[in-house]
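I am hoping you can look over what I have pasted underneath with an eye to the fold:
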Amino acid sequence: MWSDTESNTDYLNYSEVSEMLVDIISDDDMLPTSIGVYGSWGVGKSSLLKLTGAGLQDERYLVVEFDAWLYQDFDEAKSALMTVIAKHLYDATPDGMKEQAASFVRRVNKVKALGVALDLGALAMGIPTFGALAKGAGALQNLVQGEGDAEDIADVREGAEDGKKRFGGLLSEKEKRSPPAEIAAFRLEFAALLEALDRRLIVFVDNLDRCLPANTIATMEAMRLFLFLPKTAFVVAADEDMIRHAVSKHFDEPGSRHVTDYLDKLINIPVRVPKLGLQEVRAYLFMLAAVREKIDADKVEALRLHLIEKLRRSWSNEPAVKVEDISRILGLGAAHPLRSTLDTMDTIARQLAYAERVQGNPRIIKRLLNVIRMRSTVARRRGMPFDDSLIAKLALFERCTDGEAIKAFSQLVNSSPDGAVAKFAELEAVAEEDALETLLPKEWAKHRTFLSDWLKLEPALAGVDLRAAVYLSRETLPVKATMRGLSADTLEAIDILRKTVSVRSKASQAALEKIDFREADEAMEEMCASMSRNADWTTIRPDFRGAGLLAKLSPDAHLRLVRFVEGLPERPPWMVAMMKGLEES
């Protein structure tokens, strides 16, 4: 199995980008600066930050790593970045300068208190706020939108009183100073401390695109206090589209030009994570296969360096690396099991590089390989006549098509004698994509481009008993294909709940009323099965909102949802908050 964590070992020639970032940061004439490392989910932004950080291991630099998502549930999300930076500066300060560093920490606390003061003022004027007054602000949001009730009014009052009790002393001090003067003093003291330390402050801000819009903007606004001061650089890794979405939501749908202007003022240098081509995907697959085996570490490192050098020359007409080259570098004998794995990796590389739903995304590749690995293990334990190549081919089909196509595949297998689908002999004999149009099952037609390549992959499926394939892929079947014995009203309600856009949705509330109390547990089982097929929990999802509503119907349904959440590898803060709300309701 392969872990889904960032790496400071370069398998993808990202070191070329990280070296460029190090060159920018190391040039005093380029400081201060802010760099945006942009890329979609799973492309390796965090790994690129790790590689860049490894190139800044020098006493001239003070590198601060800030995971914005980690602090999302904090009451003072807006001040988390300032606190982390202040702590790193204090820890890095020599004993003889501790008082100067301590003075800066106190200054940070004052600016944080100033932010709370502004929150209280905004709350008093009816403006939704964030930070320490999140509960009251959320209630106020409901009141402004005309959706509030007596409980929301109480929460607003509680939020205001809580702020006064917790920060009253600091707020009274702030009344004697103007916000611009306090912020100016903060920036001067920060610059003076860096000058005295004679170090460059490099801040890596990661996972900003996983935060809710309010927290995303709060972190970016905190960055503004530090930007454009001498000897500072911010490197922000994020999905640019998610950041644009956060800006649009926070500022009530401004025009695209205003969103662009906002980002341009905060990010000086945009850098995009390179998209992987076929050769990068092949190299990545070969390395993933090699590091999983118990092979001498020096040989694996020699392979990595060889592949990186090949990638750096991929612009030329130099021949691509072959499986035989890999085997030679690793010293594999003719019967070594890794050779078969390398052949499988080479076979599926093109599909992983170009298929619309993969497109060389390293995280998706790892997850798909883990699926293949798990199914191979099950196949061996059950004595099924499967090899890794066949399992990989079928897993690719599931990843790159959709629920209807997967269901049709299952029906073809189940309706064929001995599980051998005669249709495959006809399809695999077709060489041209256009010729497939009239031959494909109707549920597969929209995936014709993908299938024209997929059908050519080894091994061929004609004459192969695929009943075991249906068994191995049962967790990927569409939700309706697994439902048994539920009433028509409950089935319809589940479809509606999976699309819940708001916990106050009238359509979802009406759907709940149609569900028989005795079917609530089974309905939740189907909701959880549906949710498990999408591993992206970056933002609040409609299906999880619907599951939360369904959990209120019965204790058994609630318990089933709790078990599902506890089984996830990680639970985002928004999910934790929603589950806590269910327990309190």
